[in-house]
């Protein structure tokens, strides 16, 4: 019995999961509305990119958005192959840097199409592009990236310019390693050849514009009119709501013992002067001053001053 009691915790310890590291410094999460806005923009761009490739390469090309996520730049770079085509672009008039990454094999196939070939790969995935090949690819991508301006019109103004190409992502410091970046992953299908591509943009460029847009009034004229009518109806109803109005003397503080000993016939003097108007109170808030009088057989008060006290 003792052996079983001792062995049970050991078995449980073996089944326990290994602890996972978590970076509490900067949680990389996108707000749902921001993520949806970026997905719609990247989906629009993917369709336009596919049209551009079909037109320029003269083969059927299709580009589909896979995922949009926010990670640190260091995590993004570590997820890329050691040797790949990484096109660096100037963003926001050169103040920021974005990147478009594609496999070298895909790049070589596109260049072969541009040169009039059947789209064959050289099979040498470790070779860098020649100067002529780079100029062909640069012209192709510059026309494709220009469509980002239209795709992101509802998010922020984007002006992307192809700047240079690198082949070892681990040695490219486009932004600070810990800075958050937006990563869009695309599935490419060019003449039946499937591959993938990723696009990196600094998160602060896109999210700052989205957060600023939340403060703008994006309602249509019809929506504005509907709200104004609703507010007018509410104001009309408020005027008809019954409220309790009281006319009060100035209060006096007395000991609890005096209140407990009150009997019929006792005289309780007030601190209210006979020439001082009474307080007209609504919900414990003094709104006016009134003089005490009568109206026929009923007591009444005549408002002599309006003095609202918040």
Automatic annotation (TrEMBL):
GO terms for biological process: bacterial-type flagellum-dependent swarming motility; positive chemotaxis. Signal peptide: none annotated. CDD domains: FliM. It comes from the Bacteria. Residues 1-23 are annotated as: Disordered. Its main location: other. The keyword Cell membrane applies. GO terms for molecular function: cytoskeletal motor activity. PANTHER family: FLAGELLAR MOTOR SWITCH PROTEIN FLIM (PTHR30034), YOP PROTEINS TRANSLOCATION PROTEIN Q (PTHR30034:SF6). Belongs to the FliM family. This is Flagellar motor switch protein FliM. It comes from Cellulomonas bogoriensis 69B4 = DSM 16987.
């Amino acid at each position: 019995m003792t052996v079983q009691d001792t062995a049970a915790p050991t078995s449980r310890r073996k089944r326990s999961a290994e602890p996972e590291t978590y970076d509490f410094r900067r949680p990389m999460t996108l707000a749902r509305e921001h993520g949806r806005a970026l997905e719609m923009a990247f989906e629009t761009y993917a369709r336009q990119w596919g049209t551009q490739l079909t037109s320029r390469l003269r083969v059927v090309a299709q580009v589909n958005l896979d995922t949009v996520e926010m990670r640190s730049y260091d995590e993004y770079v570590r997820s890329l192959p050691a040797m790949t085509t990484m096109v660096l672009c100037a963003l926001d008039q050169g103040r920021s840097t974005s990147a478009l990454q594609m496999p070298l094999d895909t790049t070589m196939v596109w260049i072969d199409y541009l040169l009039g070939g059947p789209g064959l790969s050289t099979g040498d995935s470790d070779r860098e592009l020649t100067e002529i090949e780079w100029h062909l690819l640069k012209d192709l991508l510059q026309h494709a990236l220009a469509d980002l301006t239209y795709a992101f019109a509802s998010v922020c103004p984007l002006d992307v310019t192809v700047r240079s190409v690198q082949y070892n992502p681990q040695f490219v410091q486009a932004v600070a390693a810990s800075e958050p970046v937006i990563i869009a992953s695309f599935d490419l299908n060019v003449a039946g050849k499937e591959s993938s591509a990723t696009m990196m943009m600094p998160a602060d460029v896109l999210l700052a514009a989205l957060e600023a847009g939340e403060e703008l009034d994006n309602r249509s004229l019809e929506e504005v009119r509907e709200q104004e009518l609703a507010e007018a109806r509410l104001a009309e109803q408020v005027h008809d709501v019954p409220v309790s109005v009281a006319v009060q003397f100035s209060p006096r503080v007395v000991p609890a013992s005096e209140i407990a000993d009150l009997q019929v016939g006792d005289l309780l003097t007030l601190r209210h002067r006979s020439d001082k108007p009474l307080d007209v109170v609504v919900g414990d808030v003094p709104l006016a001053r009134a003089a005490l009088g009568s109206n026929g057989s009923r007591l009444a008060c005549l408002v002599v001053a309006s003095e609202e006290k918040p």
